[in-house]
Amino acid sequence: MRSKLEITEQHKKVDAAEAEIRDKQQLVNYDTKEYPVEILVQKYMEGKDDDTNELFIPDYQREMAWDEARQSKFIESYPLNKSG
Description:
Layout: H1 4-24, H2 37-45, H3 68-77
């Protein structure tokens, strides 16, 4: 069983860490957008040949991780009916 002194010292460390986190917090301004897959493909394909496309896969991008079965399941899961 821990002594009260050990618990108090541990709480002081935690309190100090939390105070440091609060002091170093910064407001982050960000914007998210959701695009249908068709738009993402279009942004990638348009200008791909002359390297002016809006969306690209950098050289350091990892290789394909999904096997064909998983790729197929993803494609099949995409809703074709856009209404509603």
